[in-house]
Amino acid sequence: MNEPMTVQPELTRTEQFGRAMTEMLNQAGLAMMTSIGHRVGLFDAMSGLPPASCRGVAEAAGLDERYVREWLGAMVAGGVVDLDRDAGLYRLPDEHAAWLTRQGSLPNAAGSAQWVAVLAGAESRVVEAFRHGRGVPYSAYDRFHEVMAEQSHQTVVSALLEQILPMAPGLMERLEGGLSVVDVGCGAGRALLRMAGAFPASRFLGIDASPEAIALAQDEAGRRGTSNARFQVMDAAALGPGEAFDLVTAFDAIHDQARPEAVLRAIHDSLRPGGIFLMQDISGSGCHHADRSHAFGTFLYAISCMHCMSVSLANGGPGLGAMWGKPMAQVMLREAGFGKVETRESPHDPLNFYYIATKG
C-alpha cells in the first residue's frame, strides 16, 4: 500500500527571507575562498589534474596541506569541487574550470571574486563616510590597480581588436594609417599597450590621476620595449583645445571622475573635427526599479557604494557612481558638445555599454 504523500507547508515570507540570508552568508564565504583559490593558483593547479587527495592537490599547487584541506571543504560544500567520499579524492570538473582558471574558455569568475576582499578592506572607512559624507580615497583600497588590471584584460584587452574597436566603422583602418590617441583613466595601461602593439604607426598617450597606476603602466611599457606609447599622471579635465587627438578612449573610467562633466568637455575639445570618443561604462539604467532585472545589479551597486561613488566624493566630485545609467551618460555626452552619440552592446561584456561619440 502506498504511503500518503506528505504536503510540505508553504514557507512564510519571513522563512523564505531567512533561507535567502543563509544562502547569502554561504555565497559570501564561497566568494572569499574563490578569490583565495585564484590568488594562490589552486584552480589552475586542479584544472586537468586527475582526482587527487588533499595532499596531492596541495603538492600540485605547492601549498600547505592544512590550508588546502580547509579550502577544499568550502569548495565541496559550495558545489565547486567534486569529492569521491570513499576514495577521498577531489576533482575540479572541466565545466567549472572553464569559469575559474586563467586559461579557461569563459570569463574568469574567480578573478572577479577578488573584488570582495579588495572592497571589504575599506569597509571601516566607508562606514565612516556614511556619517560624514566625504568619501574614501583610492589609497584605502589595497591591490585595487592590480585587480582592475586583471579585469581590464578580461573585458577590454582580450576583445579590443576583435570586438570593441570595430564598433566604430573605419576606425581600425585609420589606426593602421596612424592616429593620435589618448586613453583617459588608463590605469595600468594594458588596453593602451595592446593598441600600441597592434598599430605601430599610431601614437598613444595614457593618462591617469593615480601615480601608482602610471608607474605600473610605465614599468610594463619598459618591459615590452614599447616606443609609440607614453604615460602621464594627469587630471583628464586638463585636456583641452591645445591638444589634437583623433581618438580618445575611456574604459570604465568616467563615472569615477571628480569632475566628469569637465572631463567630457575636455575630451570633446581635445579632439580634431571628426574625431571619435569611445567610452565603455557600466550598463545601468540609473533607476533602482529597472536595475532589479540587471543580472549583476546587486553586485554593481555594492561596488559603486564601496568604491566608485566614494572615490569621486573623496576628490570633491559629484559621486555619480557606477550605476549612473545610460540616459544620464547620453545627456552628458551631448552637453559636452558631441552631436552624434551611439550606444552599443557586446555579447562578450554583459557589464557595460559602449558609447561612440563623434565630434562634428
Q: Which fold name is given in CATH as the topology of the largest domain?
A: Rossmann fold
**Strand line-up across the major sheet:** 5-4-3-6-7-9-8
- Class derived from helix and strand content: alpha/beta
Helicity level, as a percent range? Answer: 40-55%
The named CATH superfamily of the largest domain:
Vaccinia Virus protein VP39
Q: Kindly state the number of beta strands.
A: 9
Uncertain runs are none
CATH architecture of the largest domain: 3-Layer(aba) Sandwich
> N- to C-terminal separation?
82 Å
Radius of gyration: 23 Å
Domain module tally: 2
Which H/E pattern describes the elements? HHHHEEHHHHHHHEHEHEEHEHHHEE
Largest sheet: number of strands, sense, barrel closure:
7 strands, mixed
Quaternary state reads single chain
Tally of separate helices: 17
* Overall spatial form: globular
Question: What percent of residues are in strands?
Answer: 15-25%
Helix-strand blueprint:
Elements: H1 13-39, H2 42-46, H3 54-61, H4 65-77, E1 82-84, E2 89-91, H5 94-100, H6 109-112, H7 114-120, H8 123-132, H9 144-155, H10 160-164, H11 171-177, E3 180-184, H12 190-198, E4 203-208, H13 211-224, E5 229-233, E6 245-251, H14 260-270, E7 271-282, H15 288-291, H16 297-314, H17 326-335, E8 340-346, E9 349-358
Parallel strand pairs: 3-4, 3-6, 4-5, 6-7
Antiparallel strand pairs: 1-2, 7-9, 8-9
Domain S-adenosylmethionine-dependent methyltransferase Rv2258c-like winged HTH: 28-102
Keywords: Methyltransferase, Transferase
GO molecular function: methyltransferase activity
